[in-house]
Amino acid sequence: MKKYFSVILVFICLLVSTTPTFASWAVAVGSEGTVITARGYQYPAQAKAAALKDCNARYTNCAIVESSANNCFAMADDGTHWGFGQSPNEHKASEEALAACSALTTRQCAIVNNFCGR
What we know:
about 35% helix
């Protein structure tokens, strides 16, 4: 019985360790200033392609502004200006986004979107 349990445990560990996390994400922005996110992809290139496809279907002059596998992302805005932040730590990503936004305006910036790709 003990041997049987060990074999099952090894099999489960192998299965879990080879399962992809699908943590890649990308952020695209269109000329209208609209932000489109694509999350949960296995590879950053897939997330970038999905974000651009979604953005181009609705807006013009779309471009990828941030992308990563496993990092956290945050976006801050003041209603007119926005800033992005990216870091392994969600709090640090939010701080970076607030600093980037605040550098563009004298108005109060606030976090409007944040997530981690883990």
